[in-house]
């Protein structure tokens, strides 16, 4: 298993180009199943989760070709409606094929994804929404199965205990796009990735209105047409490099972003005196010796994203004063804290809060990545730590960040990927 070795303390300078959004491209690849034809996707991030979704599409009989950052998908010869456990267990987002397979074929068999390190992550809302549309869903031997679904438009309230669900909103929106008649999803998630999937489905002939608000209206269609579509930039990747910049850069220009998608982070950075400069699609950031601490409460979009809280916690270890980070969406998202403690951070956790005292001098150490965003946080900590940090289990980061070591070393970081067998 590869590791990263990072020598901390380098001053970063230059430009980083943001890739397409992982959380958009995965459901969009799944939504391509709705059409019996070809889809061309541009600005696709070459991350491991995209390869896993490619394998799922190929397993069911689609053809998927990667050409640089473009994907060509042909769904004419799909001959299976099953997503097996071996593939689904690699990536929870595999369940996105449920909505599109039921939408196009009226049947699907998709392994239940199971929990993951950040929490239980149930799929009850996905099932509730699909059942409301008329899907005959049974749970059998760890699989969600549908045999003879005839989807009919209806009104669905999708909000759950932890607020709206991005995944359930998208899955139900995909199925409703192929249902007979009009559907209204209320309590829908408003994340930019939901809008991107709706725009994609509309680009192949769908009729979805209101994506990005809590109420989405969908006029079901029986046929779709071929399309070419470009994926929006990844706001979490951009946010991660913005934090790298305010921690360690003389000047770092983050290019190809949609700044409005990063509003909650940019507002917080302004509040603590780190003043990012926004110019069209670019964001310029630089480090400052002293900056204030602040509190963060994670909330669904447009609130502060749960996918940015670990990276922001690293920033708070360098801020002056106490800060509290409250996680409200996932129950177990402080797995990175013990690793930061090993690097010298002063953090206590209690329930869903992390209490951070800053500033602390971080020191390089051997640490282990537990999940995708925790890995990103450890890289950020290593960039400002004294000495050498070795991060193991970096396959987590490869799931969602395109060529992170290349992007960071291009702007002056000392980061190299090693295979333990080749390690000195
Ligand atoms: C997506 C993102 C993930 C992000 C999360 C929250 C993708 C591929 N992943 O995950 O990066 O951290 O949104 O912004 O887009 N819930 C239920 N029942 C359900 C579904 C969800 O109770 O059927 C709960 C979840 O456990 C969680 C909350 O609802 O507490 C929100 O989860 P959800 O928005 O569904 O997250 P994902 O779509 O899995």
UniProtKB/TrEMBL annotation:
<dbReference type="GO" id="GO:0019277">
    <property type="term" value="P:UDP-N-acetylgalactosamine biosynthetic process"/>
</dbReference>
<dbReference type="InterPro" id="IPR036968">
    <property type="entry name" value="Enolpyruvate_Tfrase_sf"/>
</dbReference>
<feature type="domain" description="Enolpyruvate transferase">
    <location>
        <begin position="7"/>
        <end position="408"/>
    </location>
</feature>
<comment type="similarity">
    <text>Belongs to the EPSP synthase family. MurA subfamily.</text>
</comment>
<protein>
    <recommendedName>
        <fullName>UDP-N-acetylglucosamine 1-carboxyvinyltransferase</fullName>
        <ecNumber>2.5.1.7</ecNumber>
    </recommendedName>
</protein>
<dbReference type="GO" id="GO:0008760">
    <property type="term" value="F:UDP-N-acetylglucosamine 1-carboxyvinyltransferase activity"/>
</dbReference>
<dbReference type="GO" id="GO:0005737">
    <property type="term" value="C:cytoplasm"/>
</dbReference>
<feature type="binding site">
    <location>
        <position position="92"/>
    </location>
    <ligand>
        <name>UDP-N-acetyl-alpha-D-glucosamine</name>
    </ligand>
</feature>
<feature type="active site" description="Proton donor">
    <location>
        <position position="116"/>
    </location>
</feature>
<dbReference type="GO" id="GO:0071555">
    <property type="term" value="P:cell wall organization"/>
</dbReference>
<dbReference type="InterPro" id="IPR001986">
    <property type="entry name" value="Enolpyruvate_Tfrase_dom"/>
</dbReference>
<feature type="binding site">
    <location>
        <position position="307"/>
    </location>
    <ligand>
        <name>UDP-N-acetyl-alpha-D-glucosamine</name>
    </ligand>
</feature>
<dbReference type="GO" id="GO:0008360">
    <property type="term" value="P:regulation of cell shape"/>
</dbReference>
<dbReference type="GO" id="GO:0051301">
    <property type="term" value="P:cell division"/>
</dbReference>
<dbReference type="InterPro" id="IPR050068">
    <property type="entry name" value="MurA_subfamily"/>
</dbReference>
<dbReference type="InterPro" id="IPR013792">
    <property type="entry name" value="RNA3'P_cycl/enolpyr_Trfase_a/b"/>
</dbReference>
<feature type="binding site">
    <location>
        <begin position="121"/>
        <end position="125"/>
    </location>
    <ligand>
        <name>UDP-N-acetyl-alpha-D-glucosamine</name>
    </ligand>
</feature>
<keyword id="KW-0808">Transferase</keyword>
<keyword id="KW-0963">Cytoplasm</keyword>
<feature type="modified residue" description="2-(S-cysteinyl)pyruvic acid O-phosphothioketal">
    <location>
        <position position="116"/>
    </location>
</feature>
<keyword id="KW-0131">Cell cycle</keyword>
<keyword id="KW-0133">Cell shape</keyword>
<feature type="binding site">
    <location>
        <begin position="22"/>
        <end position="23"/>
    </location>
    <ligand>
        <name>phosphoenolpyruvate</name>
    </ligand>
</feature>
<keyword id="KW-0132">Cell division</keyword>
<comment type="pathway">
    <text>Cell wall biogenesis; peptidoglycan biosynthesis.</text>
</comment>
<dbReference type="InterPro" id="IPR005750">
    <property type="entry name" value="UDP_GlcNAc_COvinyl_MurA"/>
</dbReference>
<dbReference type="Pfam" id="PF00275">
    <property type="entry name" value="EPSP_synthase"/>
</dbReference>
<keyword id="KW-0961">Cell wall biogenesis/degradation</keyword>
<comment type="function">
    <text>Cell wall formation. Adds enolpyruvyl to UDP-N-acetylglucosamine.</text>
</comment>
<keyword id="KW-0573">Peptidoglycan synthesis</keyword>
<dbReference type="GO" id="GO:0009252">
    <property type="term" value="P:peptidoglycan biosynthetic process"/>
</dbReference>
<feature type="binding site">
    <location>
        <position position="329"/>
    </location>
    <ligand>
        <name>UDP-N-acetyl-alpha-D-glucosamine</name>
    </ligand>
</feature>
<keyword id="KW-0670">Pyruvate</keyword>
């Amino acid at each position: 298993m590869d590791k990263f070795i990072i020598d901390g303390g380098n001053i970063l300078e230059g430009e980083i180009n943001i890739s397409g959004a992982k959380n958009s491209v995965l459901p969009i690849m799944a939504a391509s199943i709705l059409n019996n034809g070809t889809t061309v996707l541009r600005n696709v991030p070459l991350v491991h989760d995209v390869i896993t979704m490619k394998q799922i599409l190929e397993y069911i009989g689609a053809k998927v070709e990667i050409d640089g950052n473009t994907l060509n998908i042909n769904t004419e010869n799909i001959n299976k409606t099953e997503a097996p456990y071996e593939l689904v267990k690699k990536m929870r987002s595999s369940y996105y094929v449920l909505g599109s397979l039921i939408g196009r074929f009226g049947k699907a068999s998709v392994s239940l994804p199971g929990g993951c390190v950040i929490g239980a992550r149930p799929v009850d809302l996905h099932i509730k929404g699909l059942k409301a549309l008329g899907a005959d869903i049974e749970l059998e031997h760890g699989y969600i199965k549908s045999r003879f679904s005839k989807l009919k438009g209806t009104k669905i309230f999708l909000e759950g205990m932890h607020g709206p669900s991005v995944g359930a909103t998208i899955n139900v929106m995909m199925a409703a796009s192929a249902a007979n008649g009009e559907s209204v999803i209320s309590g829908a998630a408003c994340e930019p990735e939901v809008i991107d999937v709706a725009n994609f489905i509309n680009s192949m002939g769908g009729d979805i209105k209101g994506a990005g608000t809590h109420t989405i209206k969908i006029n079901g269609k029986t046929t779709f047409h071929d399309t070419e579509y470009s994926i929006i930039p990844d706001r979490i990747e951009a946010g991660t490099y913005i934090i790298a910049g305010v921690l360690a850069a003389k000047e770092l220009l983050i290019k190809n972003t949609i700044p409005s998608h990063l509003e909650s982070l940019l507002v917080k950075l302004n509040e603590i005196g780190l003043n990012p400069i926004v110019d069209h699609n670019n964001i310029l950031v630089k480090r400052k010796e002293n900056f204030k601490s602040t509190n963060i409460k994670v909330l669904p979009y447009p609130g502060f994203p749960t996918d940015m809280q670990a990276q922001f916690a690293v920033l708070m270890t360098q801020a002056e004063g106490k800060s509290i980070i409250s996680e409200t969406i996932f129950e177990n998202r402080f797995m990175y804290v013990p690793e930061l403690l090993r690097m010298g951070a002063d953090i206590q956790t209690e329930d869903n809060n992390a209490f951070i005292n800053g500033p602390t001098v971080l020191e390089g150490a051997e640490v282990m990545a537990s999940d995708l965003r925790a890995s990103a946080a450890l890289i950020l900590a290593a960039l400002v730590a004294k000495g050498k940090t070795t991060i193991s289990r970096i396959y987590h980061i490869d799931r969602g960040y395109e060529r992170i070591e290349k992007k960071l070393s291009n702007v002056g970081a000392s980061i190299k990927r090693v295979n333990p067998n080749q390690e000195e």
